[in-house]
Each structure stands twice: as structure tokens, then as C-alpha cells.
Fold:
Amino acid sequence: MPRKARSKDITTSPSSAAASPALLPRHLAKAGTRVVLLEAERIGWGASGRNGGHLNNGLAHSFIAAKAELGKERAVALYRAFDDSIDTIEAIIAEEGIDCNFRRAGKLKLASKPQHFDAIARNFEAVHREVDSGNGASQRK
Structure:
């Protein structure tokens, strides 16, 4: 069991061990910063332990809606950042030797009505044309 940290030992103390917040203390620790990670219970107890076991590289709403709200440049940057985050997590899994059966399996979007299908198809085409083209995302495993 690690020793308890004393306040003078702590340079920074991010709270929550959820997947994304847990990346920050890892990065800081690798850079030599003394870090204490705070969690309400034990690491992985709360929401960080109830992950559905998948990574998603998109938003709840469509790329087309994000583009209308944020502008094309920001929406494209956001979607590419999502793709980069999956690459980062895959790299960390490899670097740390995490046995989690990571695999890239694609993404399935379903439609329950014809108009939903049309919207999904339009969004897919927009993402493929405006986000994936030229950045290697369509070439990923």
C-alpha cells in the first residue's frame, strides 16, 4: 500500500479517476510532477468504474449540427480530436501493458424511421467528406 501523501508532497491533485481525468495525472507524473489522485471511494468505484467498455469518437448530435453550431473549422477540429483521443488511449494501453482486450470494432448507428436513416446517411457522408478526407482516419484499422 502506498504511503499517505503529506500536503507538502502534493504539487497537484486532480479529482476523480474517470478515464479522461485519469490521463492528466498520468501525464503529469511521467513529467516528474508529484500527483495525488482524489476519488470519493477507491479508484474505479464510481462512474469511472461503470464504463460501458467502449470508446466513442463522436457527439450525441450529428456533425452537421455541430458544424451549424460551431462553424466548420471548429466542428472538424472537434471530430478529429475525438479520433486522436482513441489513438491516445490505444497507445496508453500498449505502453502500460493494460490487459483490457482493446480492439477497434467500428461504430453502428441505427435508424428506426426512414427520415432517421436519411439523416444518418447525410451525416456519414459529411463526416467522410469533411473530416476523414486527407487525415488518414479513413485508413485506420
